[in-house]
Amino acid sequence: MSEKMDTRQYRDLNCLNGLIANFGDAGNNAPGAGGALREHLQAARRNLLGAMAGEYSLSLRLAGESAADVQDKAARAEIIRVLGILTAPVL
Length: 91
Prior knowledge:
mainly alpha; 0% strand
C-alpha cells in the first residue's frame, strides 16, 4: 500500500476488497466466464494501489461488463451498484 492514501482511495480499496471477498467467484457459474469478474476486480485493486488511474478505470469498466455474467440478480445488482460508486466523478 502506498505511504499516503487519500480518503477516496481508502474507500475504493475497501469497496474492492468487499467485492472480491463477497462476489469474486459469482461470475464463475456462467458458461465461459472463467473468473473474469475476479480477475478484473483484482486488476482494479492493483491499479488503484499502483496509482494507475487509466488502468484502474478500464479494470472497473471491464468488471462491470463481466458482472453481466453473474446469474444471481441480487448479487449482480450489488456489484453494479458498488462499481457505480467507484466510477462516480469526484465532486
